[in-house]
Structure formats: C-alpha cells, structure tokens
Amino acid sequence: MLLLFGIVIILACVLLGFFVLIQNPKGGGLSGTFGGFGNQVMGVRQTTDVLEKGTWVLAAIIAVLCLTSSFFVDKNAATGNQTKTIMEQNASRPLPAPATPLPGTQPAPTKK
Fold it and tell me: How does the protein associate with the membrane (predicted)?
C-alpha cells in the first residue's frame, strides 16, 4: 500500500511541476510556446484559471497523500524489530574485567 502511495505522490509531483512550468507569470514562460492554440480556442482567462486551479488541487493531493501514507508505515520495521530498551540491552552485557598492573611494575607506595 505504501508503494502505491509513493507512485501516486511521484506522479502528482511531476504533474505539478508541469503545471507550474507552463503557467504564464506576467508574460513569457512555456505557455507562450505551447499555449497558442489553447488560447485561441478557450481564451486566455480560462487557461490561466485551469492551470491555477490544477496547481492548487495537485498541491492539496500531494499534502493529503503524504499525511495519510504515514499511517501505513510499519512501526516495527523502523526499529529493526527490537523490543528491548537501551537499559535492558546494557544490563545484559557482561561487565569489563578490572585493569591489572603490568608485570614488573610496583604499585605506588602509600604514606601512613
């Protein structure tokens, strides 16, 4: 299910990028190159309205899909199926051996 959400999110991102690139912000842009025929048939006003509404709809779809996909993430997969806490893991480890002096060295004399 998570794979399906990922594919739909990527597809919506590509479409959103396309919609943003073909918009005509105060002249120029790619819409002047590709939109000549569309402007003659539908008119300039309807083309920009469709592109703007499409941008907002795709952005909302991406946001909703990202938020809902978090419900399908396996909680145990992120921790590697470890059920022990850090305290329990440390308690089960053996304690290190105490340090022993090197052979041939004398301990420091103590004053009485």
Answer: Multi-pass membrane protein
In this structure, is residue 29 part of a structural domain?
Answer: no
**Per-residue pLDDT reduced to its tens digit, 46-91:** 777 888 899 999 999 999 999 999 888 877 665 555 566 777 777 7
Q: Tell me the whole-structure pTM to 2 decimals.
A: 0.52
Range of the domain at 67: 41-71
- Per-residue pLDDT tens digits for 38-56: 445 555 567 778 888 999 9
Determine, yes or no, domain membership for 61: yes
CA distances from 53 to 16, 34, 64, 107 (A): 11, 19, 16, 83
For residue 28, give both structure tokens.
Answer: 């120029």
